[in-house]
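For practice. Any example?
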Amino acid sequence: MELNRLDKINYANVALIFISTAAAILFPFELFLIAYAILGPLHYLTEISWLHNKQYYTKKKNDYFVLVVLSALIALPVIGSLMNFKTGFSNLDINRFMYLAVVSSVIFVFLKNPLYRILAFVLALLTLKFSGSLYLVLSVFLPTLIHVFLFTALFVLYGALKTNSKSGYISFWTMLLVPALLITIFSGYSSYAISNYSLNAYKSFEGINFFSLKQFTNVDISNPNAITQGIYFSKSGILLMRFIAFAYTYHYLNWFSKTEVIQWHKVPKRRLAIVLLLWILSVIAYSYDYNLGFQCLFFLSFLHVLLELPLNIISIKGIITELFNSSDKKMILNDKKTS
């Protein structure tokens, strides 16, 4: 039986999941750094370009300006360190910006009436002081693992539900299977040792590892020496890094594998040329100095996370709608059978 285009893409994604997992098991830190520097910038640029064509999935044309401003405010401390000036923003301030970005995205997706929007924004400002309790979710996990793993999985599930595709469901469950495989079958002793280059280059990303190990394991990270040991050399640290490397690598590969469906490449030639030029400059920056590349691209990386939030909300809404519709269809069929 000949596979249709959608099935071919879904089964290709199953293969990409296993390839990403295998590479993450063998050299987790190196895989992450390579994927982040090469695939990452191209993903940011092409997705933002594609989202622009889709009006960022918001009710009004210029809603995205709010998310751009919030991205700039969040990135300002990193930009400030690059240009040797201090912003005065604390981690609490950054967390509040993230809270406003999430609430704004919900408003932009569901509300069009100006009065309702104003009331919703006022409510968001009144509840801003409570956002500190969501620091780990908003500032640590949302722009990282929630974005690259959970939202990617939900996007795959939404596609499978919409098309009622068996291959889509297989792709979704295969993706969810990876963490279980890493924790069980591939959690034993490993001879892997991080390279000196990777040890220095990964310093900008240690936060996600630190908070993950602190929250979900009993690894000792009580002092600077213990942090280095826990993140880069402990069994739990390497296991965690395998998952992070897989999640990021597959997140990028999933995007590019669906080019034929998403058609992000169908943009004006001038814009595509600008995208390719910026991508080449990004890779050069990372090649010259990885931490410098991270600082230069930080705004762009965060911008694509926030601009994607309305689409993520649409996906969650779509999943709920499809599940209810499926449930209603089953009830109707059962009623017909019993009548």
